Amino acid sequence: MIKVSAPGKIHLSGEHSVVYGQPALLTAIDRRCFVSLKKRDDQLIEIKDKKFKKKEKLTFNQIRHFAYLTKKAWQSNDPLALVKIGINEIYSFLEKKPICGFDLAINSQIPFGSGLGSSAALAVGLVTGVLLYEHSSRGLINEIAFQIEKRQHGCPSGGDNTVVTFGGFLRFQKKANRFEFDHLKLPQCKDPVFTLVDSGQPMESTGEMVAVVRQQITNHKSQITKIFKKIGEITNSFIKCFQKADFSQLKYLINENERLLEELGVVGNRAKKLIQLIKENGGAAKICGAGGVKQGSGMILVYHHQLEELIEVLKNKNIKFMKIKLGEEGVRYD
Ligand code: MEV
What local confidence, expressed as pLDDT, does residue 98 receive? Predict the structure, then answer.
């Protein structure tokens, strides 16, 4: 039996603009997607997803056919779509078929579609599980998981799967058709305390929100390019803050990043109201993924230099929050 787990992620800074070559600061968090894989005596592949309460038994050819039919994967309503597409993607990459069938069980602690990298964690966990007996280099895991993310989101930067694979804090930047990343050694990074507040699951997928921004570029190229550049500068300042362990600028940087994301048109009214409340109570907040405008915008990253004070306010207003740890381990064999 192979057991692996991959963490969720947060964009501390730089979502959306990272798709267009600006740097982003990402970190792995302490919510994980667990994947286990057990060889079977027959040729079937049984997929079980605890969160979606779904179970399906298929042949590899059925999986391959499914993946072929759902090329535009983010429009599929099948909760197991990404898993089936992922299995097909892995074996296409390896240019082979599984030697024998296996039972695949998925159990994720990461809220789905909320900007916390649930699909990247599933992709990385799945690839790691299947590759364990084949190859186990993180570089290869990341490369194949990126192909699966492309099937899920269309045109992702590659940042989500990279931080979920390698963990810690990453400065990530897309350069033409490849990406570069540095593992940041941030000894003091545990100091600032963050929490997440849920603004509700977006109705739109990540791919659709990336497309909203792409449309903005078509309509207002120079204005949007300036916004991307400013977000890139914020990411670099954010990294300096962490490296120097000087968090005096953090509140300003987070609020400024959020303001620019609102200008990009990726934040909905429900999230804006929550963020306003947090600011009125001395905190800073921003969405931390693709966002959403029709209803929720996913999880909101909240910073306050005395977080417990803000938490009292959230409790009094019955606003749910989730404390998180940053800089967690990437994918691992459990
Ligand atoms: C999604 O978690 C983050 C985005 O920047 C898209 C991407 O980087 O692929 C919105």
Answer: 87
Asked whether 208 and 120 are in contact (CB, 8 A), the reply is no
- What local confidence, expressed as pLDDT, does residue 21 receive? 95
184 within 8 A of 170, measured Cβ to Cβ: yes
Q: How far apart are CA 148 and CA 141, in angstroms?
A: 11
Tell which one of 210, 228, 286 to mutate to probe ligand 1, the residue whose CB is within 8 A of the most ligand atoms: 210
Q: Token pair of 329, please?
A: 């381990």
Ligand 1 center–CA 179 separation, angstroms: 14
Closest C-alpha to 233, from 26, 21, 23, 12 = 23
Q: Band of the pLDDT at 75, cuts 50, 70, 90? A: low
Which among 12, 19, 258 is the best mutation to test ligand 1's pocket, defined by most ligand atoms within 8 Å of the CB? 19
Residue 203 has pLDDT above 70, yes or no: yes
CA of 206 to the centre of ligand 1 (A): 7
3-state secondary structure of 53: coil
Task: Look up residue 73 and give its DSSP letter.
Answer: G
Kindly state the tokens that stand for 318. 């019955």
Strands (E), the chain: 2-13, 24-39, 45-49, 54-58, 102-108, 169-175, 178-184, 194-198, 284-287, 299-303, 321-323, 332-333
Q: Rounded to whole angstroms, how far apart are CA atoms 155 and 163? A: 17
- On the question of pLDDT at 254 being above 80, the answer is yes
Nearest partner of 307 among 212, 205, 195, 201, judged by Cα: 195
The atom of ligand 1 lying closest to the CA of 209 is 10
State both tokens at 15. 């979502």
Rounded CA separation 206/290 (Å)? 5
45 C-alpha to center of ligand 1: Å? 31
- Position 137 confidence tier, pLDDT thresholds 50, 70, 90: confident
A 10 A CB-CB count for 315 gives 11
